[in-house]
Design a protein that fits this description.
Component of the Smc5-Smc6 complex. With about 240 residues, this protein is an alpha+beta fold. It has 10 helices and 10 strands. It has 3 domains: about 55 residues, no CATH class; about 80 residues, Arc Repressor Mutant, subunit A (Orthogonal Bundle), CATH 1.10.10; about 50 residues, Zinc/RING finger domain, C3HC4 (zinc finger) (Herpes Virus-1), CATH 3.30.40.10.
Length: about 240
């Protein structure tokens, strides 16, 4: 395998270090970083070879049960990259950074978001959970602070008092979410990655990310489901 045989250069190492320290990196930033690392290390650079460059790193990360994964922002459809630890299942990745009570609040927030119609949970609903936690009750003021930290650390995103899962969280926890919410978690019919904020076909139940819905129906004369061909009843964003 040519990729396995490819040497891990200083450029690869530098790229990996920055990605790990960022937590998550937007696609255009990753492309700039790829160029910068190659030019600094004086190794071959081609603007369309980012995926190959990442594949080389991933082949060396494989024995360590780690991987650089690409995910799509549910807001605007842009690509993002994050380093995922495949050996850590569930929310264990977060266990070293947060207390048990904070993790319980996160799990309950995740429940609200994933089980919701639109992939969002209101701050009111989340804060109402604070005094129902099993670990111990949390004051609303405390819970507000914890939510703020989850947003800063890019596990949650917040817009006008509504919370959803950050792209980083979706990339890192995709497998956990798909196996723990089997009845409700679905992959986007277009890009095949986990869809939290999505529209769902009323006839056959497939889901699509909002940016994917926009892109897909732009090329269609009338909005019909890509799977069952029934009329798409949701408003096209």
């Amino acid at each position: 395998n040519a990729v396995m045989a490819a040497q891990m250069t200083n450029a690869h190492r530098r790229f990996l270090q920055v990605l790990m320290s960022n937590g998550i990196t937007e696609g255009s930033e990753a492309r700039k970083l790829h160029q910068h690392c190659c030019e600094t290390d004086k190794v071959y650079y081609a603007h369309d070879k980012l995926d190959d460059f990442i594949s080389t790193i991933n082949s060396h990360l494989q024995p360590l049960f780690m991987q650089i994964r690409k995910g799509i922002s549910e807001d605007d459809g842009r690509a993002h990259y994050a380093v995922v630890n495949l050996a850590e299942t569930e929310v264990t990745k977060m266990a070293s950074d947060y207390t048990e009570i904070e993790l319980e609040l996160f799990r309950k927030t995740m429940d609200l978001i994933i089980l919701s119609e639109n992939g969002f949970a209101s701050s009111t609903d989340i804060l109402n959970l604070a005094d129902q936690l099993k670990t111990k009750k949390m004051k609303k003021k405390e819970a507000e602070q914890v939510l703020k930290v989850f947003v800063e650390d890019k596990w949650l995103s917040e817009k006008n008092g509504e919370y959803t899962l950050h792209t980083r969280c979706i990339i890192e926890m995709e497998q956990y979410i798909l196996s723990n919410y089997q009845d409700v978690a679905r992959k986007c019919n277009i890009c095949h990655s986990l869809a939290i904020q999505s529209q769902v076909c009323e006839s056959c139940g497939i889901g699509m990310h909002l940016p994917c819905v926009r892109k897909y129906f732009r090329a269609q004369t009338e909005p019909r489901c890509p799977k069952c061909n029934e009329f798409w009843s949701c408003d096209i964003p």
